[in-house]
Design brief:
Elements lengths: L4 E3 L7 E5 L4 H13 L3 E5 L5 H14 L7 E4 L3 E4 L3 H7 L2
Parallel strand pairs: 2-3
Antiparallel strand pairs: 1-3, 2-4, 4-5
Length: 93
């Protein structure tokens, strides 16, 4: 079963964070989303194996062909790669 975690907060649309558990920028992105107090989902891709990992990596690839982390997808439209706090803040205003 996929380990997508849901964080409660203010609904600013559908926010999905693809992250690595060992990535400092991914951690900063999570902390920033927490500071903003928004509702979001996240998954640690490096904690998945086999088919689950392949499925999620295909999803990440669709949004971010370079498959870099963190990858934030907002409302299935806007994609922000890397820790870009200003860009995330603007996208959620």
């Amino acid at each position: 079963m996929l380990e997508i975690e849901h964080i409660e907060g203010e609904n600013k649309g559908k926010i999905m964070l693809y992250a690595l558990s060992t990535c400092g920028w991914c951690r900063r992105t999570r902390e920033f989303l927490d500071e903003l107090g928004v509702e979001y989902d996240f998954i640690y891709v490096d904690k998945l194996f086999g088919e689950e990992r392949n499925k999620i990596m295909d999803e990440v690839k669709k949004w971010n062909p370079r498959c870099s982390f963190p990858t934030v997808v907002i409302n299935n439209q806007k994609v922000i790669t890397g820790f870009k706090d200003e860009e995330i803040r603007e996208a959620l205003e």
